[in-house]
User: Fold this.
Amino acid sequence: MKNIFKIAFLFGMTALVSSCHDKSAPNYQYFPNMYESAGYETYSESAAFKDGKEGQLPVVGTINRGFEPYVYENSTAGYELAKANLKSPLDSIQKDLTKGQELYEIYCISCHGAAGNGKGKLVEREKFLGVPSYADRPITEGSIFHVITYGLNSMGSHANQLDAKERWLVANYVLKLKSEL
Assistant:
């Protein structure tokens, strides 16, 4: 008799709990503010921060993940220092001439030409003039990296298109082209 009472009680509780559930209404939330945060308009005023602004600047001295600081300044003196002192951090295994050539053909060939002689398609069509041949310039891997990073004369910076490793690969390929001229 006790077992029948227990089974009947469990069946009754199951029916009671499942029959009251409304599938069109959401369940109760424990600490709903954890799931539904207060939204702020971008650059609006907010009492949540000391300065009263919603958009906050990063802490002084922080850098982006994966960012590698470049210590040479964008000046003639910085160029000369990079030319004399800056060396590639890539070892012989990481210096991939095929990848360097691939990147050169995407970003550089239209002005500097396939051989590095300054006779690219844009120069031939007179869109840019005065692009020098690599044979005419005393360049080093440091100076090439610096120019790709900051640009020089009519050439703009390619730091947004190429990360540091890719710039070193291109610099290595440019030195190969210079040795062949």
Notes: The first helix runs from residue 2 to 19. The mean pLDDT is 86. Helices lie at 2-19, 76-85, 97-107, 109-112, 121-124, 141-150, 164-180. The two ends are 103 Å apart (CA to CA).
